[in-house]
Amino acid sequence: MADERLIAALDVPTRGQVEQLVVCLGDSVSYYKVGMELFYALGGDIVAWLKEREKKVFLDLKLHDIPNTVGNGLCSLLRLRPDILNVHTAGGLRMMQTASEALHHAADQAGIPCPKLIGVTVLTSMDAEDWAGLGHTGTIADAVLRRAKLAQEAGLDGVVASPAETAEIRRACGEDFLIVTPGIRPAGVSHDDQRRVMTPAGAIRAGASQIVVGRAIYASENPHAAAEGILKEMEAVS
Questions:
Q1: Which residue among 49, 140, 205, 223 has the highest number of C-beta atoms inside a 10 angstrom radius?
Q2: Percentage of residues in the chain having pLDDT higher than 70
């Protein structure tokens, strides 16, 4: 069985590219992230296609709106049977509480398992200069930790956070709190537009529950070999 700590990001725009990548990765990867680019291009059909192939899906849409709109939006997405959904913690405590309550109620009414609901803290593309430019006076690390604690208080299952903040979140929120970590770059791979990055081994060592890897897999000349290399690196610190 594939190691579910690795989530491969399907950050590609077409159905053909998705199918080619999933077939290439085969049994090496069982968990996939469907983000805005792919979902806005193909809609829920691509999630259904993955589920038909017994893959797990992190539907990464970062819902951020007034509480009732986010709650209703999550309930609409429930029909796709994703395994993880997310909202943005910038929406605040009440929005996150409403989202969690609405999703759990809808799942109970439908008689299906409730997806994990996690909160995006601060995008991994942001650095200190970007953060200050938004008018924030504190550090990114402080904001991430504060938002993680708020997400836990709201009843969320975990957060999305960069590997740079993972260890502090783990200490503050406990072992059962889900920490999904993007910004993963194996040694020798370009950081591209990510700023707060770490290797797969470093992220697992810091306390990440799951890591999200995109370009390092889908843009590789041999995606299957790239994924296998990441899995071996993770196993070395298990």
A1: 140
A2: 95
